[in-house]
Amino acid sequence: MAETKTISIPEEYGSMVFNDTVMRDRLPKDIYKAVHKTIKNGTHLELDVANTVAAVMKEWAIEKGATHFTHWFQPMTGLTAEKHDSFISPNPDGTVLMEFSGKELVKGEPDASSFPSGGLRATFEARGYTAWDPSSPAFVKDGTLYIPTAFCSYGGEALDKKTPLLRSMEALSQEAVKVLHKIGNEEVSHVDTTVGSEQEYFLIDKDMYLKRKDLLMCGRTLFGAPAPKGQEMEDHYFGVLKPKVSEYMHDLDHELWKLGVPAKTKHNEVAPSQHELAPVFETANVAVDHNQLTMEVMKKVADKHNYACLLHEKPFEGINGSGKHNNWSLVTDKGENLLDPGKTPLENMQFMVFLVATIAAVDKYQDLMRVSVATAGNDHRLGANEAPPAVISIFVGDELAGVLKSLAEGTEFVGKGKTKMSIGADVLPHITKDTTDRNRTSPFAFTGNKFEFRMPGSSLSVADPNIILNTAVAEELSEIYSKIEDTPADEIQEKVYNVLKDMLEEHKRILFNGNGYTDEWIEEAEKRGLDNLKSLPDAMPRLVSDKSVELFTKFGVFTKEELDSRYEIFLENYSKTIHIESLAMQEMVRKDFTQGLVNYSKDIAETASKKKELGLSVACKYETAMLEKLDSLGGSILEKIDKLHKDTVKIEQDGEGELETARYYHDVILEDMEELRKDVDVAEGLIPDEYIPYPTYGEMLYSLR
Ligand code: ADP
Ligand code: MG
After folding, report:
1. Cβ(281) to ligand 1 under 6 A?
2. Was domain 9-160 assigned CATH 3.10.20.70?
3. I need a surface site. Which of 70, 89, 172, 568 has the fewest CB within 10 A?
4. CATH of region 199-322, choose from 1.10.10.10, 3.30.70.1020, 3.30.590.10, 3.30.70.990
């Protein structure tokens, strides 16, 4: 029995976080104010202020059991990075002081020459630096004080995901505030992006995980004959939690709560052994940090419970993969959700502005939205009838579609219960999230008072899609502003509606309320001129297109060099991922799988010859047929593995150009792997489990209690 202890959740929640309450309680008033100003306005923090904050933070962290501190950052690997320094400072008399200065809080210099920089950082200046991000709270985890930081080169170029995210949030805020002031909402001085990212994951037995080299090295299975039962019964979705899984989730919630991560909902997902955790939304920057923490803690707690937590987008073939729904909205510093249809004509106009700006942004920059979720892992999901297709479209539901249609056509809107109203003059109905109206097949859906982007893969940092979404919406708002800035106040309403009407006319092709999984939609999308960028190598060139460079440089989110470096890193990462998969596959087939095949064949052959030795008049039909089958499969496996080997060596030797290399991995290596897998899976289906040197799909997917 697990030990039961009574915990007060309000006491536990955020207990390991250096949050606003702790700062207010412990910092001198003027220092607290200075920090608050920095957090709110992004202003520079004076060194004496930093020194005081550092001293107080250190005292607090030591009380929480910390002996070390680390700058915590998010390099381009998409993971988090940390380097721990202890607080100790030895004295000549053999004693020791615990020290932590303002300088150490504000700036760090990790020896960072091995992080991907895509050529941004020449090696002579390889020491990029980390800079404290006071807008995301520090916390204590495993005896270390974690300080969220941005990571830049000495030239000031972003080497991480946080820096451009913060820049994009700022750009969006500035453009949103300009428009809001112009349309009459003059109180607002800042707009924040809010994000809630639902996280899907698989749990499997740890011992089984450790026996699968493919899971260990690649995060996904490279082989596996389908289990007799897959997900066709749909009996797992929202099903009763198994007791041990429930204990895991319970423990996970508590660990997250201590770190101030607002884990809220948990349930079983569609696939066996698949689950989901959704947090309460937060400011995008904090939400991104918290999602990274969530993924880390999920793995750590799993290990404690003798599970392995799989965050790969497609750990098992033939079973749904895992995604991460990025719920996104905008909130003013007065607490108003800008995507909430309001109660007054002004609020309505506001809502329509931000709604149409988002629709236009997603249409105009659909290729960048696709780029933002492109990874080798996620390519296995998109368009595979379990996740949105690679085509971007927007679902707004019937009611809102009606409102938009009336807007575009300049007609009266007829709502539910036949209420009539003219857009602009009357108050819009509250657009409720109608459960019958939910469309799980849409990549980008309006869900009542926010948009939900459903394409991100489960292991992705949600920084990427939010950087693009924020910047694209900033651009559309800037365009709206340029069209209304000279309009006098008494004409503003009409002007705004005319501008929105034109924008909608131009971008309405992106709206689609039907089933996104069908072939008809893919055909229709093509007719509408929507992009269908099926793989990462198809999509990635769009990141460095003139249109993209223009967008990101206009708002200072990325320089051209930063975009070029990211392009290079994403492509390289893609090729490397598939390269490792190819090698892992070759090793598993040659060293492990074929051993099973040979042993089984040997045993059957021995059985047959024994039968004959005994002088029985037997035909040994089963043994003969099985031997022939296995022999033929073995021959085919040999040919295919040789081809995979040759093709992999070829690209190792002649690879030139990131894009060409990535294309080769997509067109040739993935294809070779697919072919090899087919034979191995068929053979696995014929060979008894005890000959297979690693756990099967059936064992892994149904092992949880
Ligand atoms: P579902 O999408 O399953 O219906 P919810 O509507 O409760 O579930 O929300 C899903 C996610 O959306 C949660 O993580 C929630 O915090 C987040 N969310 C809700 N409102 C907002 C908002 N205004 N901005 C960003 N995320 C939000
Ligand atoms: Mg959802």
Report:
1. yes
2. yes
3. 89
4. 3.30.590.10
